[in-house]
Write a structure and sequence with these properties.
Number of strands: 28
CATH superfamily of the largest domain: Fumarylacetoacetase-like, C-terminal domain
Helix content: 10-25%
Largest sheet: 8 strands, mixed
Shape: globular
CATH topology of the largest domain: Fumarylacetoacetate hydrolase, domain 2
Distance between the termini: 54 Å
Structural class: alpha+beta
Number of domains: 2
Strand content: 25-35%
Number of helices: 7
Protein backbone atom coordinates (compact mmCIF):
# COMPACT_ATOMS: atom_id res chain seq x y z
CA UNK A 1 0.00 0.00 0.00
CA UNK A 2 1.15 3.51 -0.83
CA UNK A 3 -0.01 6.95 0.21
CA UNK A 4 0.42 10.55 -0.87
CA UNK A 5 1.20 13.05 1.91
CA UNK A 6 -1.20 15.96 1.71
CA UNK A 7 0.35 19.28 2.74
CA UNK A 8 -1.82 22.29 3.57
CA UNK A 9 -1.26 25.27 1.24
CA UNK A 10 -0.22 27.47 4.19
CA UNK A 11 2.11 24.89 5.76
CA UNK A 12 5.60 26.06 6.69
CA UNK A 13 6.86 22.51 6.07
CA UNK A 14 6.21 21.91 2.39
CA UNK A 15 8.50 20.20 -0.15
CA UNK A 16 10.83 23.22 -0.29
CA UNK A 17 11.68 22.81 3.40
CA UNK A 18 12.19 19.12 4.33
CA UNK A 19 14.03 19.40 7.67
CA UNK A 20 15.75 16.35 9.14
CA UNK A 21 15.20 14.85 12.57
CA UNK A 22 15.50 11.61 14.54
CA UNK A 23 12.25 9.96 15.57
CA UNK A 24 10.85 6.75 16.99
CA UNK A 25 7.55 5.38 15.70
CA UNK A 26 5.31 3.51 18.11
CA UNK A 27 7.10 0.35 19.28
CA UNK A 28 10.05 1.10 17.03
CA UNK A 29 13.71 2.17 17.28
CA UNK A 30 14.97 5.71 16.70
CA UNK A 31 15.88 6.48 13.10
CA UNK A 32 16.29 9.43 10.70
CA UNK A 33 13.25 11.07 9.17
CA UNK A 34 12.26 14.13 7.15
CA UNK A 35 9.27 16.26 8.01
CA UNK A 36 6.70 16.98 5.30
CA UNK A 37 3.62 18.84 6.50
CA UNK A 38 2.36 17.02 9.58
CA UNK A 39 4.01 13.74 8.62
CA UNK A 40 7.45 12.21 9.07
CA UNK A 41 9.01 10.16 6.26
CA UNK A 42 11.14 7.24 7.45
CA UNK A 43 14.14 7.54 5.13
CA UNK A 44 15.53 4.08 5.88
CA UNK A 45 12.33 2.60 4.46
CA UNK A 46 11.48 5.18 1.80
CA UNK A 47 14.99 5.23 0.32
CA UNK A 48 15.91 1.66 1.24
CA UNK A 49 19.12 2.95 2.80
CA UNK A 50 20.38 1.54 6.14
CA UNK A 51 22.39 4.65 6.98
CA UNK A 52 19.10 6.31 7.96
CA UNK A 53 18.33 3.52 10.42
CA UNK A 54 20.94 5.06 12.75
CA UNK A 55 19.64 6.91 15.85
CA UNK A 56 21.54 10.05 14.81
CA UNK A 57 22.07 12.22 11.74
CA UNK A 58 25.85 12.04 12.13
CA UNK A 59 26.54 9.10 9.76
CA UNK A 60 24.56 10.78 6.98
CA UNK A 61 26.10 14.22 7.62
CA UNK A 62 29.60 12.79 7.40
CA UNK A 63 28.94 11.73 3.79
CA UNK A 64 29.28 15.33 2.62
CA UNK A 65 27.59 17.92 0.39
CA UNK A 66 27.23 15.83 -2.76
CA UNK A 67 25.34 13.18 -0.80
CA UNK A 68 23.25 15.82 0.98
CA UNK A 69 22.15 17.21 -2.40
CA UNK A 70 21.40 13.75 -3.80
CA UNK A 71 19.20 12.75 -0.86
CA UNK A 72 17.38 16.08 -0.82
CA UNK A 73 16.51 15.70 -4.49
CA UNK A 74 15.28 12.13 -3.98
CA UNK A 75 13.08 13.23 -1.06
CA UNK A 76 11.67 16.12 -3.09
CA UNK A 77 10.72 13.62 -5.78
CA UNK A 78 9.09 11.39 -3.16
CA UNK A 79 7.05 14.34 -1.91
CA UNK A 80 5.41 14.57 -5.34
CA UNK A 81 4.55 10.86 -5.50
CA UNK A 82 3.01 8.11 -3.43
CA UNK A 83 5.17 6.74 -0.61
CA UNK A 84 5.00 3.24 0.94
CA UNK A 85 2.61 3.32 3.90
CA UNK A 86 5.19 1.85 6.26
CA UNK A 87 7.48 4.86 5.60
CA UNK A 88 4.89 7.47 6.64
CA UNK A 89 4.17 8.39 10.27
CA UNK A 90 2.00 11.07 11.83
CA UNK A 91 4.09 13.75 13.51
CA UNK A 92 1.71 13.67 16.48
CA UNK A 93 2.41 9.98 17.08
CA UNK A 94 6.23 9.86 17.07
CA UNK A 95 8.82 10.61 19.71
CA UNK A 96 11.61 13.02 18.78
CA UNK A 97 15.12 13.00 20.20
CA UNK A 98 18.28 15.11 19.86
CA UNK A 99 18.96 14.84 16.11
CA UNK A 100 22.78 14.93 16.29
CA UNK A 101 25.53 13.62 18.51
CA UNK A 102 27.07 16.95 19.55
CA UNK A 103 30.88 16.83 19.47
CA UNK A 104 31.75 20.38 20.52
CA UNK A 105 29.55 23.38 21.22
CA UNK A 106 30.64 26.99 20.70
CA UNK A 107 28.48 30.04 21.43
CA UNK A 108 29.15 33.39 19.79
CA UNK A 109 28.17 36.99 20.57
CA UNK A 110 27.43 38.08 16.99
CA UNK A 111 24.55 40.58 17.41
CA UNK A 112 25.68 44.19 17.55
CA UNK A 113 22.36 45.23 19.08
CA UNK A 114 22.61 42.62 21.85
CA UNK A 115 26.26 43.48 22.57
CA UNK A 116 25.44 47.19 22.63
CA UNK A 117 22.48 46.69 24.98
CA UNK A 118 24.53 44.64 27.45
CA UNK A 119 27.38 47.13 27.24
CA UNK A 120 25.02 49.95 28.18
CA UNK A 121 23.58 47.90 31.03
CA UNK A 122 26.92 46.79 32.50
CA UNK A 123 29.10 49.79 31.59
CA UNK A 124 26.75 52.79 31.47
CA UNK A 125 29.58 55.34 31.61
CA UNK A 126 31.79 53.70 28.98
CA UNK A 127 31.71 52.75 25.31
CA UNK A 128 29.18 49.87 24.98
CA UNK A 129 31.32 47.75 22.64
CA UNK A 130 34.73 46.60 23.83
CA UNK A 131 37.67 47.40 21.48
CA UNK A 132 37.87 43.91 19.95
CA UNK A 133 34.17 43.47 19.16
CA UNK A 134 34.16 44.92 15.63
CA UNK A 135 37.33 43.03 14.71
CA UNK A 136 36.37 39.41 15.48
CA UNK A 137 33.35 37.24 16.30
CA UNK A 138 33.61 36.96 20.09
CA UNK A 139 32.72 33.48 21.39
CA UNK A 140 33.31 30.88 24.08
CA UNK A 141 33.32 27.10 24.31
CA UNK A 142 30.14 25.68 25.86
CA UNK A 143 29.31 22.26 27.25
CA UNK A 144 28.20 19.75 24.61
CA UNK A 145 26.93 17.28 27.23
CA UNK A 146 24.13 19.60 28.36
CA UNK A 147 22.70 20.30 24.90
CA UNK A 148 19.18 18.85 25.09
CA UNK A 149 16.36 18.39 22.60
CA UNK A 150 13.40 20.77 22.50
CA UNK A 151 10.76 19.82 25.06
CA UNK A 152 13.25 18.76 27.74
CA UNK A 153 12.42 20.24 31.16
CA UNK A 154 14.96 22.76 32.49
CA UNK A 155 15.85 22.43 36.18
CA UNK A 156 16.70 25.79 37.76
CA UNK A 157 20.48 25.81 38.32
CA UNK A 158 22.21 26.50 41.61
CA UNK A 159 25.48 28.33 42.04
CA UNK A 160 27.32 31.18 43.72
CA UNK A 161 25.60 34.58 43.64
CA UNK A 162 26.92 37.90 44.87
CA UNK A 163 24.99 39.33 47.84
CA UNK A 164 24.50 42.97 48.84
CA UNK A 165 27.50 42.68 51.18
CA UNK A 166 29.73 41.79 48.24
CA UNK A 167 30.37 38.25 49.50
CA UNK A 168 28.82 35.27 47.70
CA UNK A 169 26.21 32.79 48.86
CA UNK A 170 25.07 29.57 47.18
CA UNK A 171 21.58 28.75 46.00
CA UNK A 172 19.10 28.66 43.09
CA UNK A 173 19.46 31.30 40.41
CA UNK A 174 17.05 34.20 40.94
CA UNK A 175 17.67 35.73 37.50
CA UNK A 176 17.08 32.84 35.11
CA UNK A 177 17.00 34.01 31.51
CA UNK A 178 16.83 32.84 27.90
CA UNK A 179 18.83 33.58 24.78
CA UNK A 180 17.08 33.21 21.41
CA UNK A 181 19.70 31.99 18.95
CA UNK A 182 20.30 30.23 15.65
CA UNK A 183 22.61 27.20 15.69
CA UNK A 184 24.71 25.84 12.81
CA UNK A 185 25.48 22.13 12.48
CA UNK A 186 28.81 20.96 11.04
CA UNK A 187 28.43 18.02 8.69
CA UNK A 188 32.00 17.54 7.44
CA UNK A 189 34.73 18.26 9.95
CA UNK A 190 38.25 19.62 9.46
CA UNK A 191 41.66 18.38 10.50
CA UNK A 192 43.78 19.81 13.29
CA UNK A 193 45.96 22.71 12.11
CA UNK A 194 43.85 23.15 8.94
CA UNK A 195 41.61 26.26 9.28
CA UNK A 196 38.39 26.36 7.27
CA UNK A 197 38.54 29.12 4.66
CA UNK A 198 35.61 31.53 4.82
CA UNK A 199 34.43 30.66 1.30
CA UNK A 200 34.40 26.94 2.12
CA UNK A 201 31.43 27.21 4.49
CA UNK A 202 29.11 25.20 2.22
CA UNK A 203 31.56 22.28 2.16
CA UNK A 204 31.26 21.87 5.93
CA UNK A 205 27.95 23.17 7.33
CA UNK A 206 24.83 21.08 6.75
CA UNK A 207 22.06 23.17 8.29
CA UNK A 208 20.57 25.32 11.02
CA UNK A 209 18.39 24.81 14.08
CA UNK A 210 16.80 27.00 16.72
CA UNK A 211 18.67 27.29 20.01
CA UNK A 212 17.73 28.56 23.47
CA UNK A 213 20.90 29.03 25.50
CA UNK A 214 19.44 29.26 29.03
CA UNK A 215 21.38 31.69 31.22
CA UNK A 216 21.59 32.24 34.99
CA UNK A 217 22.43 35.94 35.01
CA UNK A 218 23.23 36.23 38.73
CA UNK A 219 25.58 33.23 38.65
CA UNK A 220 27.12 34.54 35.44
CA UNK A 221 27.64 38.06 36.81
CA UNK A 222 29.67 36.79 39.80
CA UNK A 223 31.82 34.24 37.95
CA UNK A 224 32.45 35.55 34.45
CA UNK A 225 35.39 37.88 35.15
CA UNK A 226 38.08 37.32 33.98
CA UNK A 227 37.51 34.12 31.95
CA UNK A 228 33.94 34.49 30.71
CA UNK A 229 30.80 32.30 30.92
CA UNK A 230 30.96 29.05 32.89
CA UNK A 231 28.33 27.59 35.28
CA UNK A 232 25.87 30.39 34.51
CA UNK A 233 25.57 28.97 30.97
CA UNK A 234 26.57 25.30 31.03
CA UNK A 235 23.55 23.77 32.80
CA UNK A 236 21.30 23.55 29.70
CA UNK A 237 21.12 24.55 26.05
CA UNK A 238 17.97 23.56 24.15
CA UNK A 239 18.15 22.58 20.47
CA UNK A 240 15.27 22.14 18.04
CA UNK A 241 14.40 18.58 17.07
CA UNK A 242 14.58 19.59 13.39
CA UNK A 243 17.68 20.57 11.39
CA UNK A 244 16.82 22.71 8.37
CA UNK A 245 19.30 22.14 5.51
CA UNK A 246 21.14 25.20 4.23
CA UNK A 247 19.73 24.27 0.80
CA UNK A 248 16.24 25.19 2.06
CA UNK A 249 17.42 28.69 2.99
CA UNK A 250 18.73 29.86 -0.38
CA UNK A 251 15.90 32.40 -0.68
CA UNK A 252 16.67 33.67 2.83
CA UNK A 253 20.16 34.85 1.93
CA UNK A 254 20.62 38.60 2.15
CA UNK A 255 23.52 41.03 2.06
CA UNK A 256 25.48 41.20 5.29
CA UNK A 257 25.18 44.55 7.13
CA UNK A 258 28.14 46.90 6.59
CA UNK A 259 31.16 46.08 8.74
CA UNK A 260 33.33 48.95 9.91
CA UNK A 261 36.28 48.64 10.07
CA UNK A 262 36.76 46.13 7.28
CA UNK A 263 37.53 42.71 8.77
CA UNK A 264 40.97 41.16 8.45
CA UNK A 265 41.52 39.17 5.21
CA UNK A 266 40.64 35.73 6.67
CA UNK A 267 37.16 37.10 7.54
CA UNK A 268 36.46 38.63 4.11
CA UNK A 269 34.16 36.51 1.95
CA UNK A 270 33.94 36.77 -1.82
CA UNK A 271 30.15 37.12 -1.41
CA UNK A 272 29.35 38.16 2.17
CA UNK A 273 25.85 37.06 3.15
CA UNK A 274 23.51 36.90 6.12
CA UNK A 275 20.12 35.27 6.64
CA UNK A 276 16.62 36.73 6.79
CA UNK A 277 15.16 34.65 9.63
CA UNK A 278 12.39 36.07 11.82
CA UNK A 279 12.09 34.66 15.35
CA UNK A 280 9.29 34.94 17.90
CA UNK A 281 9.72 34.36 21.64
CA UNK A 282 6.62 33.10 23.47
CA UNK A 283 6.48 33.34 27.29
CA UNK A 284 3.67 31.18 28.73
CA UNK A 285 1.88 31.44 25.39
CA UNK A 286 2.27 35.21 24.99
CA UNK A 287 4.48 36.57 22.20
CA UNK A 288 6.88 38.99 23.91
CA UNK A 289 9.69 39.51 21.39
CA UNK A 290 10.46 39.31 17.67
CA UNK A 291 14.25 39.05 17.18
CA UNK A 292 15.46 39.54 13.56
CA UNK A 293 18.47 37.44 12.51
CA UNK A 294 18.88 39.76 9.52
CA UNK A 295 20.51 42.30 11.87
CA UNK A 296 23.40 40.01 12.87
CA UNK A 297 26.78 41.71 12.43
CA UNK A 298 28.94 38.59 12.02
CA UNK A 299 27.94 36.00 9.41
CA UNK A 300 27.74 32.20 9.86
CA UNK A 301 30.75 31.82 7.53
CA UNK A 302 32.80 34.35 9.51
CA UNK A 303 32.01 32.55 12.76
CA UNK A 304 33.19 29.22 11.33
CA UNK A 305 36.34 30.74 9.82
CA UNK A 306 37.25 32.39 13.13
CA UNK A 307 36.40 29.26 15.13
CA UNK A 308 39.07 27.33 13.20
CA UNK A 309 41.51 30.18 12.46
CA UNK A 310 43.96 28.96 15.10
CA UNK A 311 43.95 25.45 13.64
CA UNK A 312 41.23 24.01 15.89
CA UNK A 313 39.68 20.87 14.41
CA UNK A 314 35.96 20.37 13.87
CA UNK A 315 33.94 17.15 13.79
CA UNK A 316 30.67 15.90 12.36
CA UNK A 317 27.90 17.05 14.68
CA UNK A 318 29.74 20.06 16.06
CA UNK A 319 27.33 22.87 16.91
CA UNK A 320 28.03 26.58 16.99
CA UNK A 321 25.41 29.19 17.79
CA UNK A 322 25.03 32.85 16.98
CA UNK A 323 24.56 34.16 20.49
CA UNK A 324 21.50 36.18 21.44
CA UNK A 325 19.66 37.62 18.44
CA UNK A 326 18.41 41.15 19.06
CA UNK A 327 17.32 44.13 17.01
CA UNK A 328 17.33 47.89 17.65
CA UNK A 329 13.72 48.09 18.87
CA UNK A 330 12.61 47.15 22.42
CA UNK A 331 10.34 44.35 21.17
CA UNK A 332 13.21 42.79 19.18
CA UNK A 333 15.41 41.86 22.14
CA UNK A 334 16.19 38.16 22.37
CA UNK A 335 16.86 37.93 26.13
CA UNK A 336 14.89 38.98 29.18
CA UNK A 337 17.79 40.89 30.70
CA UNK A 338 17.43 43.18 27.69
CA UNK A 339 13.63 43.14 27.51
CA UNK A 340 13.34 44.10 31.20
CA UNK A 341 16.45 46.31 31.01
CA UNK A 342 18.25 44.50 33.78
CA UNK A 343 15.03 43.94 35.73
CA UNK A 344 14.17 47.65 36.01
CA UNK A 345 11.41 47.66 33.35
CA UNK A 346 9.03 44.69 33.89
CA UNK A 347 7.54 42.90 30.89
CA UNK A 348 3.76 42.42 30.68
CA UNK A 349 3.01 38.70 30.31
CA UNK A 350 -0.63 37.62 30.42
CA UNK A 351 -1.55 40.57 32.63
CA UNK A 352 1.40 40.11 35.00
CA UNK A 353 4.58 42.15 35.38
CA UNK A 354 7.61 39.90 34.93
CA UNK A 355 11.38 40.26 34.69
CA UNK A 356 13.12 36.87 34.87
CA UNK A 357 11.81 33.29 34.73
CA UNK A 358 9.80 31.71 37.52
CA UNK A 359 9.29 28.01 38.17
CA UNK A 360 6.59 26.62 35.89
CA UNK A 361 7.21 29.14 33.09
CA UNK A 362 7.38 27.75 29.56
CA UNK A 363 9.36 29.35 26.75
CA UNK A 364 8.76 28.52 23.09
CA UNK A 365 10.87 30.07 20.33
CA UNK A 366 9.71 29.74 16.73
CA UNK A 367 11.13 31.04 13.46
CA UNK A 368 10.53 31.26 9.74
CA UNK A 369 12.28 32.59 6.66
CA UNK A 370 11.30 33.53 3.09
CA UNK A 371 10.67 30.72 0.65
CA UNK A 372 10.78 30.84 -3.12
CA UNK A 373 8.49 33.45 -4.74
CA UNK A 374 5.68 30.89 -5.08
CA UNK A 375 6.19 29.51 -1.55
CA UNK A 376 4.71 31.20 1.50
CA UNK A 377 7.51 30.78 4.09
CA UNK A 378 9.88 28.14 5.41
CA UNK A 379 9.47 27.08 9.07
CA UNK A 380 12.36 26.31 11.38
CA UNK A 381 10.19 24.47 13.88
CA UNK A 382 10.42 25.39 17.54
CA UNK A 383 12.59 25.09 20.60
CA UNK A 384 10.58 24.61 23.81
CA UNK A 385 11.39 24.25 27.49
CA UNK A 386 9.65 24.54 30.87
CA UNK A 387 11.40 25.63 34.07
CA UNK A 388 11.31 23.31 37.07
CA UNK A 389 12.41 24.11 40.65
CA UNK A 390 16.03 23.67 41.67
CA UNK A 391 16.87 20.33 43.26
CA UNK A 392 18.14 20.20 46.84
Amino acid sequence: MRTRIEVAPDSLFGPDNLPYGVFAPQRGPYRVGVRLGEAVIDLAVALDDPIFAAPSLNPFLAQGPARWREVRERVRQLADTEIPDEAVHSLAEVDLRLPIEVGDYVDFYASIDHATNLGRLFRPDAEPLLPNWRHLPVGYHGRAGTVVVSGTDIVRPRGQRRTDSGAPDFGPSKRLDIEAELGFVVGVGSDLAHPIEIDDFAEHVFGVALVNDWSARDIQAWEYQPLGPFLGKSFATSLSAWITPMAALESARIALPAQDPEPLPYLRAADPWGLDVALTVHWDGAAVSYPPYSRMYWSPAQMLAHLTANGAATRTGDLYASGTISGPDPDQRGSFIELSWGGSEPIHVNGQKRTFLEDGDEIVITASSPGRPDVRRIGLGEVRGRVWPARD
